[in-house]
Amino acid sequence: MTKLLLIGGGHAHLSILRSLLHEEISDLQVTLITSSKFQYYSGMFSGFTEGLYDEDEIRIDLESLCTRASVSFIEDTIISFDPMQKVLLGFSGGIYSFDVVSFDIGSGVASDLTQNVGLNIKPNYRFTEQIKEFRSSESPVIIGGGSAGVELAFSTSAWRKKQSLKNPVTLISSSPLLHSYGNKATEKIREIAKYHNLVYYENEQIEKLKNSIIITDKDTEIKYSAIMPVTGPKASSLFQQALLSTDANGYLLVDDTLQNADYPYVFGAGDCVSLAGYPNLPKNGVYAVRQGPFLWKNIKRLITGRPLVPFKPPKKFVSILSTGEKHGLFTYGDLVIYGKWAWSLKNRIDRKFMNKHL
Ligand SMILES: Cc1cc2nc3c(=O)[nH]c(=O)nc-3n(C[C@H](O)[C@H](O)[C@H](O)COP(=O)(O)OP(=O)(O)OC[C@H]3O[C@@H](n4cnc5c(N)ncnc54)[C@H](O)[C@@H]3O)c2cc1C
C-alpha cells in the first residue's frame, strides 16, 4: 500500500479531494494533514468583510469532504520535515511517515509588522476573526496596494459606511495602486477610490510608528488604531529548514511536473512553490487551482511508473476585484472594465466554486 500525504488544504489539494469523490485507487492510502478543519476561500474575503457573506459561505469543511472522498483527515500543522527519512513532524507532536508527499500550504504575509502591532490574516483560517477586529477599529490602515490590499480597503470602507462609522479607511502603498495590473487599472482604481472616499498614499512606505501615528518615508503622518499588512507573500521556513532546494525567497523549488528535483517523491503546488521554469509567476489562487489536476495526474503517474506531464501556466488570467457595494473591476491583460456586472460575475463564479465542495 502506497502512503500519500497531502500537507495543507489549499486549492490544488482541494482539486485532488474533489477527484477522489468519484475515483477509487487501489493500493493507495491518502491522508490530508492541515492546520484547520476549514479551508477559507480568499476569493470571498472581500464579500465577508463587507457583510455580504456569512462565515459558513466562505469556508469549506475539509473534514467532511475527506470523509466523503475516503481520505483520512488529521488537523495538525507541520513544523518539520525530513525528506530523506520520509517523515514529518506536526505541532501536536504527531510523527507522520509517507511514500509520496505533496505540499500546498500557501504563504504568509511579508511584513515585520505582523510580529508586533499589525493584524495578520494568514494562515487563511484566521481571516474572519482578524478582519472583524480590523473593520470596526477607529482608524484602520491597510498596508499594500496590490489586489488583496485594494479589495480589503474597499470592502472595509463599504462595511463602515453601512455601520455609519465616520473615519475613513487609509491605504498605504509603496508603489502605484494595482501596479502589476498596468496603468489603465491604476488610473481606474484611483477614480473609484475617490468616489468611495478612500484615503490612499502611493509610493510611500512606513518609516516608523509613534504614539498611534504612522510616519512614512515622505514624512506623512497618519493616525492609526489598527494596521493590516497585506504586503505580498512570504515563504514558509519549512523547506529551507529541511535543506530542500528552494528559490532565493525560500519557496520550494519544483520543476514543471511539480516535483522537487532532489526528491522526486516530494511534490508541491500553489503559493508555497516556485516553478523552476517560471520564477516570476505571481502567487495567486488562479495558478494554484490550475495546478491541481496536473498535480493529481503526476502523483498517480509516479506511483504507477508512467512518465509525468508538464504544467504550463497560462500567460494571462481573468481577475475580478470587488470594489465595494457590489461593483467590480474586471481585468484580462490590457482590458480593464468596471461595473456592477463584474461583481455579479465574480459572485456567480465564487459561489459555483464553493458549491463543488458541498
Ligand atoms: C484578501 C485576499 C484576497 C485574495 N483574492 C484572490 C482572488 O480573488 N483570486 C486569486 O486568485 N487569489 C486571491 N488571493 C490570493 C490567494 O489567497 C492565494 O494565492 C491562494 O489562497 C493560494 O492558494 P494555496 O492553495 O497555495 O494556499 P492556501 O489557500 O493559502 O491554503 C493553504 C492551506 O495550508 C494550510 N497550512 C498552512 N501551513 C500549514 C502547515 N505548516 N501544515 C499544515 N497545513 C498548513 C492552511 O491552513 C490552508 O488550509 C487573495 C489573497 C488575499 C489575502
Automatic annotation (TrEMBL):
GO terms for biological process: aerobic electron transport chain. Gene3D superfamilies: 3.50.50.100. InterPro entries: FAD/NAD-bd_sf (IPR036188), FAD/NAD-binding_dom (IPR023753), NADH-Q_oxidoreductase (IPR051169). Residues 3-292 form the FAD/NAD(P)-binding domain. Pfam families: Pyr_redox_2. SUPFAM superfamilies: FAD/NAD(P)-binding domain. GO terms for molecular function: NAD(P)H dehydrogenase (quinone) activity. Keywords: FAD, Flavoprotein, Oxidoreductase. Its cofactor is FAD. It comes from the Bacteria. Belongs to the NADH dehydrogenase family. This is FAD/NAD(P)-binding domain-containing protein. It comes from Fictibacillus phosphorivorans.
